Amino acid sequence: MAGRSESEGGLPAFGRWLVRERELRGLDRERVTRATKLAPGVVEALESGAAERMPPRAYVVGYLRAYAAAAGLDPDDVVLRFHEAAGPSGRDGVRRRGGSAWIVAVALGVAAAALAGVWWMSR
Question: What is the pTM of this model?
Answer without folding.
Answer: 0.66
